[in-house]
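Complex record, two chains
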Amino acid sequence: MTTLDTGQMQKPDLAPRDNYLTHTRGAWSWLFTLDHKRIGIMYLVCVLSAFFVAGIFALLVRTQLLTPEGTIMGQDDYNQAFTLHGAIMVFLVIIPSIPAALGNFVLPIMLGAKDVAFPRLNLFSFWLWVSGALFFVLALVSGGLDTGWTFYTPYSTDPNSAMGGMIPAVTGAFVLGFSSIFTGMNFIVTIHRLRPPGMTWFRMPLFLWGIYATAILQVMATPVLGITLALLAVERAFGIGIFNPELGGDPVLYQHFFWFYSHPAVYIMILPGMAIISDLIAVHSHRHIFGYKFIAYSSIAIALFSFLVWGHHMFTSGQSPLVNVIFSAITFSVAIPSAIKVFNWLATMYKGSISWNTPMLYAMGFIFIFTIGGLTGLHLGTLATDIHLHDTYFVVAHFHYVMMGSALIAMIGGLHHWWPKITGKMYNENWGRFAFALVFIGFNVTFFTQFMLGSQGMPRRYATYPADAGFQIYHVISSIGSYILAVGFFVTAGYLLQSMFGGRRAPANPWGGRSLEWQCSSPPPHDNFSETPTVGDCYDFSVLEWNEDEQGYVWRSDIPHPGEEEPGGH
Amino acid sequence: MMSTLATILPAMLGDATGPTFWMPEAASSVAGEIDWILEFINVISYIFFFIIVFALVYLAVKYRRDPERKQISGDGPTHNMTLELTWTIIPTLIVLVIFWVGMVGYIDLRESPDDSYEVGVFAQKWQWTFSHPEYGVTEGGELTVPLGRPVRVIMTSADVLHAFFVPAFRVKQDIVPGRYSTLWFEATKPGSYQLYCAEYCGKDHSKMLATVRVLPEDEFQDAMGKLAREYEDLPDADLPRYALVRLYNRCSSCHSLDGSTGTAPSFKGLWDRTTGGSTVFTDGSSLKDHMGSGGEYEVPENYIRESILNPGKYVVENFTNVMPNNFASQLKPRQIEALVLMMKHMDELVDEDGNIIEPPETEEPKESAMTETTGDGG
């Protein structure tokens, strides 16, 4: 039986050695690399750039709404700003953020593998992402995009209504869909085929369960989006009636198609977030995860239920009341696995030894924010109250609590968690905590006010609003929150970038994690592991101890590695 | 049982209809029940939120790691089937109750009483037209409804999706082109309530507002009578002002009065441009080519008339035609006449900045009542 390359762990080697960053040099070696780690980094850079752009649009939207008549933009410009904010955040940022950027980096290492199952397909996925992004740029220069990220018909297919960038934009979303499908396929095969000796399904880190459930959704739901967007483009370009009633089509059909993908897409965004949090809580509480199987099964349950609830986006669309009642009932079933996860995370903290470092703060912030996001889902899943709340800021607040406050916060928590592994450098912990405070406070100030705004009746996607409806005070508070949030992100970008040049050298295992990525050096070598390691229970942290020389955790000398017979034997 | 509970409890709690922290003023028969359901879910949410956040903070503080003692690792239980089943089953029962309460409330929202008063709603970018089939009248920018009678709204759209949303009534329904959709409400408080378009419909989506005016039965009958008669009884001299205050709100989202260019040409100076023939069309011809003896628009008024009834025929240069072509069915001949006269007399009706000049004091009461009912634009 093969064993882990334990030499580097027991005798820390601080001398510079070959790693994936220094393995080859030059732009070409990056752009056409097959190394999952470099592809992950390229995704990360691109996704964060798109996040910056879409964040600027968000700030424009918030600034516009400071005054009832609009502060900085006309109606058309505002409509473009919120459309681009939504479309970029969804298609270019949140969907690829955790699976494609962090997942690509971490997943094969967690499996002790040298790479994903199909490295070339992986690179192709990345370049599809870049092409999709270019199509969005093309949409901007060919007339703009003002349909909202949902591309609702008949507005989107009527040349007299939607702006000219419609076809490039749906082409972009179509191409991005394939990027997502290929990533999902790659991960499914990788998890099935490349698990190391000792890693049964129920010994996988929960991050992998989450990514696996996500990949199923990506592969099964995204093709429906592709077909739908293709039909949309055909209708717009050639006037073939599919969704437009003037041509004999049905606009509500489009909504069914769209949400059949886009509701699972919500879980494509949140499941990887939950996956990260499960690992963060366990590692930084230095304590075995509580209820492993319930967390793992709940990921799969969420993935399956998510295919059956799309109609809850359409309670006011005109679908029949009976259908609404059925969708409402099924919708509540999703609440249960989400609640199970939250309770299991809390139980994991019980009797833990909780480090209040930046990743753990983000994980705890996630629990707080996701609780609010989940509980306000009850108001929206309930038919009687959804009728009033639908298409108001209550919905805007709810999905920002889930998609931004939960999915993206988890992504940032995960970025801090794996930053030492990715870059080989430690960031400044105090700056990290300070930026977390700004992000957490800014986020809640921005979006909690929007619950009141919405339940008081403020509709979504309004460039202006009546001055006498009492909305302005909420808008002002919300906008101030968004500026705090922006400062938090700039501070984060600042100290992370600084750490790359001035940061302390990261040990192999700074936090005390036991999944395999913490058992190779930081940053990992080009091939991750020279020999395929054997794994045990990745949440049993009692095998690790703090090593003062290394400033990190190492395997206890009196405990054998999995697959070894004698303590410390080699 | 749940529905009785849902009706009894609000009554026990006192029938507050003013705005609360969460909800706006309540002014319809269903609002009490909806607000009760919302508060019910709120209470459940508060309880869960405080349990979770208390546990989170308590555990984080109590089990905080001493940064100097890095050797310690936690050792709590790794699973507990009883606990897992408890926090699976209790939330399941709770959400079942919430679902049931919400379903019962929803059925009340959707099933309109048989004796409802019927109103037609016609939505188009970016204006509302309301019709009262019983009285054969239409209004724009303002929907007048009777107090204490169920009102059934039958809605359709000329172009894209819109949605009818009155927060004070807690009702909302999408309006889909090519089909009818419906909702009902019974207003319980006289007054004016904001109506929004809640489904994104393009450029002036946020300007697609109207008011719902709730009147006691006798005042409602008077208002309908006035609407039915107003333009038939008016002296010709009052027609231009009638068109400006009662009809222009269906034009205002595209045609300005102050000369600014919107989606469509401004009405300011339109009559001069028409008689002068200076307007140039997208096909390259100018209005002058179609005027003069034997021309299509020998009488310039015909150009205005044609532009209202058949807007796509000649489109002014630099614009695209997005105007609905259904005004022929919405406007009576005398209303079209009023609109033509409004164009001719625009200089007397509005000032340089497009503000409506108030009529002299010696107006008849009917005229002032008319001005009062001006909606805030479609």
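Note: DSSP finds eleven helices and ten strands in chain B.
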